[in-house]
Design brief:
Elements (H helix, E strand, L loop, with lengths): L9 E7 L5 H13 L9 E7 L3 E3 L7 E3 L11 E4 L16 H7 L7 E5 L3 H6 L7 E2 L6 H7 L4 E2 L5 E3 L3 E4 L2 H16 L1 H11 L26 H9 L7 H7 L4 H12 L3 H19 L4 H7 L5 H12 L3 H9 L7
Parallel strand pairs: 1-2, 1-5, 5-6, 6-10, 7-8
Antiparallel strand pairs: 3-4, 9-10
Helix pairs in contact: 1-5, 1-6, 5-6, 7-8, 8-9, 10-11, 10-13, 11-12
C-alpha cells in the first residue's frame, strides 16, 4: 500500500463522461471533501472535470454542469474515473475515443489513478492496467475478460490496490476504495472520522466478496452481528472461532456458513483484519509500546504483530508509527 501525500493540499480530480452515474461522482466529493487535518483544514481539494466544460448527461433525469475541462488533470494528485453508460453496451475492441485517450494521457506520471465500476474498461484500453490485479463489476466480468484476457481480473473482490493504479468493483465499493485511499494517505483516525460523518462502515477489506448472499439478515434467521460486536470488544483475549459461535449459540459449522453469507469473508479472515485495524489505530493515536499494542489487538506478541504488519502493509510497527506520528516507540 503506497501513500500518495503531497506537501500542498492533495488535488483529487473526477473525470466525468456523458452518461455518468451521479452517485459515483458524489461519493468522491463527499468522502474526500470530509477529510480534515488536526487543524480542521481540508486535506483534499476535489474538482470535477470533463473533456469539455459544460453540461454532462447522466443515467438519470438530471444533468451536471461541469465547470472544468481537461486542464484540471494537469495538476492532479489523484484521478478517479467513474463508470458511464457507454461502458455497458457492445463496442469495438478499443472502447474509447481518441479525444478521451488524449485527455487521460494528460494525467501526470506521479498521480494515482482509480476507477470505479466499469471505469476500469477505459484504463484497460489505455494500457494502464498491464501487470495489475484489477476488478470491475461482477456483471461485466465476462465482457472484460473477453476484451482483455491478458489482464489479471478478480471479479470477486471489492477493490484492488496496485500502488499507483486502483480499481473498485461498483457503486458502494467506490466508498470502500475512497476510504482506503484516505486511510493510506492520512491514517485510520482520519478515515474513520470521514466514515462516521458519512454514516458508513469505516473499513471493508478489499478482498471481501462483491456479492454477499445475505447482506440484510432475514429476521427469521439468527444473525452473527452479536458475535462480531463481542469479538471487537475482546480482541485482547484472542477470541477463537468457537468463542464467536458460542455467542450466537450456534455450532461452529453453522456459524461459519452464516458468517460468510453475511460478511463475505470467513471469521478467521475478518478477525485478522480487525486485529490489524486495531493495531494501526493504536500506533497512530497512542504512545503505547509495540508489546502492549500487540496484546490489545490480539496478536499476543510483538513478533506476531510485526509479522502480520509486514505481510499486510509491508512495514514494521515502528516504521508505521513514524509515518503518522513522526516518533519512535519506547519498545522495539
Amino acid at each position: 500500500m503506497t501513500a500518495f501525500v503531497h506537501p500542498a493540499r492533495h488535488r483529487v480530480a473526477v473525470l466525468a463522461r456523458h452518461g455518468l452515474l451521479p452517485i459515483e461522482t458524489g461519493i468522491v466529493h463527499r468522502l474526500f471533501g470530509r477529510a480534515v487535518g488536526t487543524d480542521g483544514q481540508p486535506l483534499y481539494e476535489v474538482v470535477t472535470c470533463a473533456l469539455e466544460p459544460g453540461v454532462i448527461t447522466t443515467d438519470t433525469d438530471f444533468t451536471l454542469n461541469v465547470r472544468h475541462g481537461p486542464e484540471a488533470l494537469d495538476e492532479a494528485d489523484t484521478v478517479i474515473l467513474p463508470a458511464a453508460q457507454e461502458d455497458y453496451v457492445e463496442r469495438p475492441h478499443d472502447p474509447i475515443s481518441p479525444a478521451l485517450a488524449a485527455v487521460v494521457n494528460r494525467i501526470p506520471e506521479h498521480a494515482r489513478i482509480a476507477s470505479i465500476c466499469t471505469g476500469a474498461f477505459v484504463l484497460a484500453a489505455l494500457g494502464l492496467l498491464e501487470g495489475c490485479r484489477v476488478t470491475t463489476h461482477w456483471q461485466s466480468a465476462g465482457y472484460f475478460r473477453a476484451m482483455y484476457p491478458h489482464i489479471d481480473l478478480d471479479p470477486d473482490v471489492l477493490y484492488t490496490d496496485n500502488g499507483r493504479v486502483l480499481t473498485a468493483a461498483g457503486v458502494a465499493s467506490g466508498i470502500d476504495l475512497s476510504l482506503h485511499m484516505i486511510r493510506a494517505d492520512h491514517g485510520a483516525s482520519v478515515a474513520n472520522e470521514v466514515a462516521r460523518h458519512t454514516v458508513v462502515p469505516p473499513h471493508r477489506d478489499g478482498g471481501q466478496a462483491q456479492y454477499i448472499r445475505h447482506p440484510v439478515p432475514d429476521p427469521e434467521r439468527s444473525s452473527t452481528s452479536k458475535a462480531r460486536a463481542w469479538a471487537l470488544d475482546h480482541l485482547h483475549l484472542q477470541p477463537s472461532l468457537g468463542d464467536m459461535a458460542d455467542q450466537e449459540a450456534m455450532s461452529v459449522r453453522t456459524f461459519t456458513r452464516r458468517f460468510r453469507d453475511e460478511v463475505g469473508q470467513s471469521p478467521g479472515q475478518w478477525l485478522a483484519q480487525q486485529r490489524l485495524d486495531r493495531a494501526r489505530q493504536l500506533l497512530e493515536e497512542s504512545d503505547l509500546s509495540v508489546d502492549r499494542i500487540a496484546h490489545e489487538a490480539g496478536f499476543g506478541t510483538s513478533a506476531s504483530l510485526r509479522q502480520h504488519m509486514h505481510a499486510g502493509l509491508g512495514v514494521s510497527p515502528s516504521a508505521y508509527r513514524r509515518t503518522f506520528q513522526g516518533s519512535t516507540d519506547a519498545a522495539p
